[in-house]
Amino acid sequence: MQLQLDGLDTARNIPLFIAFRVLFSARFYYPVLGILFLDLGLTLEQYALLNVAWAVAIVTLEVPSGALADVIGRKRMVVAAAGLMVLEMLLFAFAPTDRPGLLFALLLFNRILSGAAEASASGADEALAYDSLPSDGRKTAWPLVLERLMRWQSGGFFVVMIVGALVYDSVAVGSVAAFFGSEWRPAAGELVRWPVYLTLLISFGCLAVALALREPPGREAITALWPTICKAWRNVRTGAHTVVADRRILLILLAALACDSIVRLFLTFEANYLRLIAIPEFLFGMIGASLGLLGFIAAPLARRMVDKNSAQGNFIAVSALIIIGLIGAVFATRFLGVWVTIPLGLSMNLAGFFVSHYLNLWTSPKMRATVLSFRGVALNLAYGTAGLLFAGVTGRLRAAGSGQDENAIFAESLFWLPLAFGVLIAIVGLIALASRRRCRELTREYKPDEEPVPPV
Length: 456
Prior knowledge:
Growth Hormone, Chain: A; 2 domains; 75% helix; disordered N terminus; 1% strand; 2 strands
C-alpha cells in the first residue's frame, strides 16, 4: 500500500518503523541475561541494583521524553534512542572484567543508558508511524500495521532466543565448529560476551534505520532550549489531564496495567514454574522461543477483534484468558502444566495490540507521543508494585513455613496471582460501570487538525 501525505511519500516510515522495533528489541543476551552478569563477575546484589537502576531510568524519563518528542519531533527522539542503544552496547561489550569496581560502575551506566533508550523510543516511534498513515484511513490501516509488526517481532524473538542461547554455550559452539571441520573448541566462559557482540552489531543497524525515517509534514519542531523545555512541560500537564479526563483512555490504561502487571510477573518467573512442573532445563529456551511465535496467531486474531468487538469486549476476552492460565498454574500439573503459558502469552500479545490501537485512535495527534508515554510509566510502575507485593507474599510464606525449599514457596505463592488479578479487574470493572455515561459522550476518534484539550 502506497501512503501519501501532502505530497511527501511517507510510506517508507511503516516498514522502517517495523524494522526499528524488531532491531531495537533484538537483544541476543536476553535468554542468558541473569547468568551473563554473574559470569562477568557481578554478585546477585549488584545484579539486582542494576535492574533497579534500569527501571528507575525508564520511569523517570518516560513521560518527559514523550513530551519532548511532541515538541522537537518524533524522529529526533527515535534517533536518540538508537544512539543510546549503540552507546549502552559499547559499554556492555568492552567493560573490563579485571577491575570489579570499574566493571560495576560501567554496567550501572549501561543500565541507565538502556533505560533512557527505552524511554526515548517509547511512544515516539509509534506516534511517528501512526501520523505517517493517511488521515482518512488510519482507523483501518493501523491494525494492519500492528499485525505486521507483531508477526515480525514474533519471528525476531524466536531467532534471538535460539541464537543467543546457542552462542553462549561453549559446548554447542564447539559442536558446530567440529561439524564444519574446525579444531577450535571454546573454553568455558570464553563466549560470555558473544550475545552482547551480536546485539552491538544489531544496534548499528537500528541506528541506520532510525536515521532513514522521515518526520511527517505539518509538524513545526521547536529547537530553542527554553521554549522547548516550556512546551514539553505544558505537554506533560496536558497529557496527564487528557489521560484523566478522557475516561476511555483512563480505562484502557487501567485494564492494561491490571493485565500486564500480573502476567508479566508470572512470565518473569517462568523458569521457576517450568522447574516446578519438572520440565527438563534444556527445554526452557525452546519453550520461551516458542511462546514468541504466538504473535503469528495473535496478530490476525487481534485485528479481527478490533474490527468486530468493542474495547470492553476485547479486554473481557483477554481477562478470561488470563484467569484460565493463572488458575491452571495454581495446580502446577507435572509436565502437562506447561499449557498455561499459551493463554498467558497470547493474552500479552492481544493486550499490547489493543492498547496501541485504542490509544492512537482516541488521542490528539499533537499529544500522541506524550499520552503513549504515560502507558509505559503506568505499566512499569504497576509491574514494579506487583513485584514488591509478590516478594512480600513469598517472604511471609517463608517465615510461616520454615524449612520449605524455594520450589515449595513458589508453588504456594501461585495461589495469590489469580486472586490479585481478580481484585484488580473487578476494580477496573466498577470504574467502567461508573464511567459509562462519560464514555458514551466520547465515541469518536480525533482528527488530525484537532487541538488537545488544555488542562483546567
